[in-house]
Amino acid sequence: MKVFINGRHINILRAEHSLLLPILKKSGIQLQSSRRGIPNIGTVDIDGFSIRTILKSNSKSHDSSKDDIFLKVQFDKNINFKYCINNNLNSSSEELSRVRTIHRLIFKTIPIYNRELKHKLNELNKFSANYFSKQKDIKQKIDKNKYYLKELKQEFLIRKKIALHVTKILIPSIYIVRRKNNGAIQAKWTFLGSEQKRIHLGMADKIKNYSDKKLRNMAIGIIRKNYSHPLDSLTYTWIDRERKRLVKWKNTINSSKKIYN
Q1: Could you tell me if 195 and 169 are in contact, meaning their C-beta atoms sit under 8 angstroms apart?
Q2: Which residues contact 31 (CB under 8 A, 6 or more apart)?
Q3: Domain boundaries, the chain
């Protein structure tokens, strides 16, 4: 599925979320705000009695970023990094790529580099005039890498949740539902974290012999007809390809086996 942004068609997973969200809002789908409707509860004094009540919300204190479905999963505001990144990136592909990069740094690049530094440390000539300065320099690099590795592991735990969220919500899920009570066959589908309006495909007495594949393709055809850009370019081929890529990504980043010798 592709979206037209900045004069060209690109994969929706590569699109910047800040540019993509306004387009999706115009497509006809139902959007679910990530902000919970928690009432503002406080107390007021009436005739000397303290009464708990729901206070009028303060619109000025409302954080509009909480209405962005792409920001539903974020870093805690108390997390501050010296070397790593503690903010959400602006596209699903960027998030996925960042997680792969962190995984490679944790399990390959930094361990190999530290191993080389320790080897250099052991090979230093203790009778050299600048032995202590070289020793100090190498130890500082090792300590820096240890601190960097600690931050990377913390970012990795949160970043992979963000990447999984912003990618899964952009890949529609379609399920065939056969209602026994009235014989109707429907397609249930979710997109952007919300169940969309169910699609009536027909009655069982007429299409009961249709395979799930055919019913699914019927549903996709109705979605393309009833919803505007970018859903008018939706295909199951794209859904299947992106799902497989996501599974491969998950298998890679969830592997606890070190990828170096």
Answers
A1: no
A2: 24, 25, 69, 192, 194
A3: 1-33+173-233, 92-169
- Closest by CA to 168, choosing from 32, 34, 235, 70, is 70
Please state, in angstroms and rounded to a whole number, the distance separating the CA atoms of residues 91 and 119: 40
**Buried-state track 173-211, b at ≥16 Cβ within 10 A, e below 16:** ebebeeeeeeeebbbebebbbeebeebebeebeeeeebe
| Lookup: tokens for 207 | 């299409």
- Number of C-alpha atoms within 13 angstroms, CB side, residue 46? 5
For the stretch 159-205, pLDDT in tens is 999 999 999 999 999 999 998 888 899 999 999 989 999 999 999 98
Q: How far is CA 250 from the centre of its chain?
A: 12
Provide the token pair at 161.
Answer: 């949740």
